[in-house]
Q: What sequence folds into this?
């Protein structure tokens, strides 16, 4: 088989340059331009079927690694999440598994670091209970022990107080019973226990200049 031409693809973003390789006058495969140069893929060169298979495998590996690094540049991700994203992009399981292994070797994939990032981000945006956060992490493929370590130092009392504070403008002016019911439903939906929710309700009610339930009549 003879490589009859190697044509640069158009419309690719910088850093994603690729070429189309034609063999015996017909399109055969697309490769990263750097890989094509490294393997001396050029017009007039003879090439074997085994070489083509090896080129396709190497191109998939490099492409998957580049794609994974782009995803990680936006934010940390768990190994499961990243693997699922790569498979949705069309990469085969062996390629994905090799990519994840390589990222671990490079130190770019760390479930413990992801768990800490996820916990801090969720608590700053939408505070919730330690139990619910740990469950969220497990659903994202984080081991139970790692999830528990990431949430160990959180305080449900503090998180509930913070979460309630973001609802106060919508709850001001209500009677105590309505205030208690609405804020209670909200807090329990965030995973807080009855005891934590009740304590938070009474604290926030008192901050409105009202009497707690026991004195409210």
A:
């Amino acid at each position: 088989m003879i490589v009859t031409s190697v044509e640069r693809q158009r419309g690719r973003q910088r850093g994603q340059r690729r070429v189309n390789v034609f063999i015996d006058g017909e399109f055969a495969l697309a490769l990263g331009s750097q890989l094509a140069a490294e393997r001396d893929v050029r017009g007039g060169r003879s090439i074997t079927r085994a070489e083509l298979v090896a080129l396709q495998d190497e191109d998939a590996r490099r492409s998957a690694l580049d794609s994974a690094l782009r995803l990680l540049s936006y934010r940390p991700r768990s190994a499961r999440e990243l693997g699922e994203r790569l498979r949705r992009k069309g990469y085969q399981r062996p390629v994905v598994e090799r990519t994840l292994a390589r990222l671990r070797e490079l130190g770019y994939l760390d479930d413990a670091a992801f768990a800490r990032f996820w916990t801090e981000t969720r608590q700053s945006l939408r505070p919730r209970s330690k139990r619910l956060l740990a469950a969220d992490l497990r659903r994202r493929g984080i081991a139970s022990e790692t999830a528990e370590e990431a949430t160990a130092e959180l305080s449900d009392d503090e998180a509930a107080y913070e979460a309630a504070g973001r609802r106060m403008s919508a709850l001001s002016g209500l009677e105590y019973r309505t205030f208690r019911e609405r804020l209670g439903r909200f807090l329990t939906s965030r995973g807080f226990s009855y005891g934590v929710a009740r304590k938070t309700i009474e604290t926030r009610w008192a901050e409105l200049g009202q009497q707690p339930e026991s004195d409210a009549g």
